């Protein structure tokens, strides 16, 4: 076997489909967000407005967060120095985990290197520990949950996206006496919709299933104190486990679960992705604590983000652009063709200094390629108007309506 040629061919087929991934080399600048410098390969830079960031509230450049990171790095150094069990647990881990348990009104919380690792570790561990467990999973669940379910080697039943009747059919088919986990998200990141939490919880209770809720795109942003959609609807106490990230609205990185003492302790003792890796550095934890605590108290960032999302949707509606009408702050614009999606985003960048990353397979199914727009707390009305004007020009030039399937 010629390994070089083999892998070149693999990449070539991705290129043929028009979904070769090209990264944008950004230089984020404090005080300028959502603007940033884009570095080109020829050495030049371009100032762009970012329209696809998950730093929904601009917390990545919040002065209190930056100061906490800076000060802690100066005091406690750069790295954690070990895994959680072997010298890598900092006093700040304890403070962050207590802060999260308080946020979600749960007995305990556990921090991971990322939201991905949290999902993979928690879901795989909980399912694997229960003999005969069946996991009921929304078909659009994030790759990290799918990875966790696969690693558990337990049976999986996939229900159609947000389809409660289908979930009930599957629950009914399963033996009454086996352990069950219902795994779903609140805000679906690529659709911009929100799941029918109340109905899913009611079903899970009826069939005595454990509820596992990914609130990655909701924590910091929804509900009182940023505790998520379940908290906003007053039903967080009925969810067995909430999983979140510090990488999105909190503006840093890392992931976590919040649940009962017993569940958190089981994951802590058994989850490979938790145990066998160096823990987050003290500086990051200090930034996380500052961000989580700030957003428990402050509503202004949330209000701005939602005002912007509302204004953007209204303008898209007026312009007749095919955005996907979810209830959340995320606004996907359907294009339905990988090449066209890439061409439009390239032109947004070249002609209008607007940076939106095209979303392609395998992040979304083929034929549903889209732009995923996020109006953050830091965007201004003028930014939104400029974006919509540019989109209208490109929509007409590229005859995009022929692809859209929304
Ligand atoms: C981004 C994402 C994750 C992973 O979180 P990270 O902290 O970025 O690893 C998990 N679930 C969903 C739904 C996500 O969109």
The tally of beta strands, per DSSP, is 14
Largest sheet: 7 strands, mixed
Rg to the nearest angstrom? Answer: 22 Å
Helix-residue proportion: 40-55%
* Distance between the ends: 44 Å
Shape: globular
Q: Give, in spatial order, the strands making up the sheet with the most strands.
A: 4-10-9-8-7-5-6
- Structural class category: alpha/beta
Report what the structure shows:
The protein has 406 residues and is an alpha/beta fold. 44% of the residues lie in helices and 16% in strands. The chain has helices at residues 3-16, 63-76, 84-88, 91-104, 115-129, 143-152, 164-173, 197-206, 229-232, 261-270, 272-275, 282-297, 300-319, 338-352, 381-398; strands spanning 25-28, 35-39, 45-50, 108-112, 134-138, 155-159, 180-185, 210-214, 241-245, 255-259, 330-334, 354-355, 358-359, 370-374. The strands form three sheets. The chain has a seven-stranded mixed β-sheet with strand order 4-10-9-8-7-5-6, with helices on both faces. Strands 1-2-3-12 form a four-stranded mixed β-sheet, covered by helices on one side. Helix 13 (300-319) runs parallel beside helix 15. It is globular, with a radius of gyration of 22 Å. 48% of the residues are buried. The mean pLDDT is 96. The protein binds pyridoxal-5'-phosphate.
